[in-house]
Amino acid sequence: MEIIISNASSKPIYEQICDQIKTAILAGDLAEGEQLPSIRALANSLRVSAITTKRAYADLESEGFIETVQGKGSFVAGGNAELIREEQLRQVEAHMARAIDAGRAMGLTDGELTEMFALELE
User: Fold this and answer.
1) Which of 48, 80, 103, 109 has minimal Cβ neighbours within 10 Å of its Cβ?
2) According to DSSP H, which parts of the chain are helical?
3) How confident is the prediction along the chain (122 residues), in pLDDT tens digits per residue?
4) Which pTM does this prediction carry?
């Protein structure tokens, strides 16, 4: 698993880590039950604070993407099929919302937007 941190990004480092791990899970690059690097190991490899990686892992765990077993480490959570589908649906909805906002910003009506979506579906 390769994580790339950008100091130029407006996103905090923990969020960049979290997003990249989520993306790897959603893409199937990290399989169910696969062990993630320890908090310290990941912090060292990225040259960031262990507190930063701990925050990323805590967020991933609270969202149900990973499970942490005391003394053993963090693993990709099982039963992710529904969670992955929900996350992908949220991403599609976000793309659609941006398209609608862009269309409305240029003065398109709801009917015109609906027609455009229908044409794209064909």
Assistant:
1) 109
2) 13-27, 39-46, 50-62, 81-105, 110-121
3) 789 999 899 999 999 999 999 989 888 899 889 999 999 999 999 999 999 999 999 999 998 899 999 999 999 998 766 777 787 888 899 999 999 999 999 999 999 999 999 999 98
4) 0.70
